[in-house]
Amino acid sequence: MFSARHDLASLALLPGRDVVALAAAGFNTIAEVLDHLPKRYEDRRRFDAFPNLPTGDPVCLRGRVIDAAPKFFGSGRSFFEAVVMNEAGGVFGSGKITCRWFNMPFLHKLLAAGLEVSVFGRVKDSNGRLIMDHPEFEILREDDGEDSSIHMDRLVPIYRNIPGIAQRRLRDIMHLMLHQVDPDTLALGYNVEPASSRFESLKAGHFPESLEQAHAARRRFALEEFFALQLNVVWRRLRYGEHAGRVLGRSTTYLKQFYENLPFDLTGAQKRSIKEILADMRTARPMNRLLQGDVGSGKTFVAMATMLLAVGSGCQAALMAPTQILAEQHYLTFRRWLEPLGIRVSLRTGNRDEGDHLETGEDPQIIIGTHALLYDSVTFNDLGLVVIDEQHRFGVAQRAALIRQGVMPDVLVMTATPIPRTLTMTLYGDLDVSLLDEKPPGRGKIITGLRIAPKQTAVTKFVKDQLSQGRQAYLVYPLVEESEQVKTESATEAFQKWSKRLGSYQVGLIHGKLRPEEKEEVMRRFREGEIAVLVATTVIEVGVDVPNASVMIIHHAERFGLAQLHQLRGRIGRGGHKSYCILLTDGKNPEALEKLKVLEGTADGFEIAEADLRLRGPGSVLGTVQSGLSNLRFVDFLADTALLREARSLAEQVLTEDPLLAGDYKDLRKCIQESEAVQDLPTTA
After folding, report:
1. Which of 46, 98, 355, 379 is 20 to 30 A off residue 574, Cα-Cα?
2. Does residue 576 share a domain with residue 506?
């Protein structure tokens, strides 16, 4: 028996070529290899029936290759095509599927007529043929060896690819190691459970007898992973609380003047959030708070009130936004409301340095900007409060760089992307959370409609009708320019067509490839009503506030994520007019239609976020790199509230009993020290 910690290279357990391939993929010990659990399972006790129509979900088919050859199309480009036919007949039908792989010319060495294969993927219709593009596949054959049962007539594990090792060989390796490893060496240092129990879970995870057993095993390893994640989160929270911060918010003079000048009352949620923030600022512990609210819930006014509390204490406040459009929108809003109070507000973006400080020579009290705030040319006199808007759009190092420009500043991070409760617990468990769950009164009602392949004349007539009533409109497209790979109309193409369709109405174009000064000029003209219709990409997703714009038509809506569509929709309904968000799609994708119907049926961002989590999973919803989940293996369990709470409870228990985590689990401290999130901690004086 071998220890799980044994280095593969030191064992005569595997051929050298396998050891080299595993090492190149980052696997050096038996334990590391066994922790590479399957991504899914194929039930090779029975396969799916060959479909007669496209499928929304992936299917697993077994059949024989009757034709396989490279195919060529324009400019000498090629793809490999194999036609797979079912020979079983009966309940499995007698159809055939054409499988295609692009940019994989080596497949002609693997696939040939006569081979029996399993293929896994979604089936679509292409000019009357049923097609699988880039399916996973495996060549099936009878085995003479004693381990043949692990490949057929059972639930068969399918692993994420390891270059140089085929699926079949990887299964053999896992089976061998499970029979050679000493179970007692698989224990983890924090002793959540006995080693024998972990070993049984590993066996069930790799070669389960049922899908229920596989799910239970994966859930157990998800708990292990989330436990380590929560150790990090709880440790960060405890460490942050150890720092001595500064006491702000004693003076509320500016805040009271701000309230008195408002022509409307703040919502109950806004008032509650400001009270929570004020309580934080008045303690010696640095504030570390997340302000989470749906589109149009009034985060900007809460941020404004927070910054007035900091300014009233004699220090500066900075707000960093991810785009120039959003930073400029904030600057205009802040000047409108705060200049009557005598507050000096400045703007700093890549190409603009603007504000009263340029004329008076005095330091600005509130500095609003983009990543430009991180440059050496921006100096802060006494930065006491950092506000980061749409914080998930910034890298951890960028957020930390701004925080370090102050001495133990209070930190408020904001997001307009509703995050399901379980993900908030995971990603922001070290933060205090304020929730804006009300919308200010006086907002216009938004009617959302889904339209499948409508006539262009009908769309144009609707836009003209709205324009004739004095309204303005956004026409959103997923691409800036025409693409050979994606047959979708681009914003640039559409701009020319809409300019002709709308005649005397002025049409503008904005996208991310324009220079900053060009985008600024287009937005100025749209805000001031010179432009009636703005053809745009998702560059307008955040930071655009034009109350008179009450129409948004999103073309090829199936190409956008639910959260992104909800953010886009939030650009309208900001005035008192009834607004319309029209989602246009070709209707060919059943999954896309399900997604769009969610948006049509509700305006509740948190309900939409939960649906997005259910439909696409946390990795797609959040974006793994920015969310800090880039190495998380069990993202599908992030919606399991009970599991996350158990992980949190275990983490708190372990840190209470042993803050230094002595023992075998020494890697935790290194993990914590190297964690990206720790860079968010403020620096001491």
Report:
1. 355
2. yes
The answer to whether residues 171 and 132 belong to one domain is: no
The answer as to whether 50 is a domain residue is yes
* Cβ-proximal residues to 434 (8 Å cutoff; 6+ apart), any chain: 272, 273, 276, 277, 289, 290, 291, 292, 302
Instruction: Quick: pLDDT tens for 212-270.
Output: 999 999 999 988 888 888 887 787 777 766 667 789 989 999 999 999 988 889 999 99
| Residue 387 domain-assigned (yes or no) | yes
Name the residue with tokens 């940019």: 103
Please give the structure tokens belonging to residue 146: 């004693």
Q: What confidence tens digit (pLDDT) does each residue in 537-562 have?
A: 988 887 688 999 999 999 999 998 88
Is the CB of residue 341 less than 8 Å from the CB of residue 251?
no
| 260 and 361 inside one domain | yes
Q: What is the distance between the alpha carbons of residues 263 and 81, in angstroms, rounded to a whole number? A: 67
Q: Locate 75 and state its tokens.
A: 């400019």
525, 458 contact by CB (below 8 A):
no
Length of the chain: 685
Quick one: 132 and 183 in the same domain? no
State how many domains the chain has.
Answer: 4
Q: Please give the span between the terminal C-alpha atoms of the chain, in angstroms, as a whole number.
A: 55
Distance CA 433, CA 126 (A): 49
Could you tell me if 25 and 66 lie in one domain?
no
Has residue 307 been placed in a domain? yes
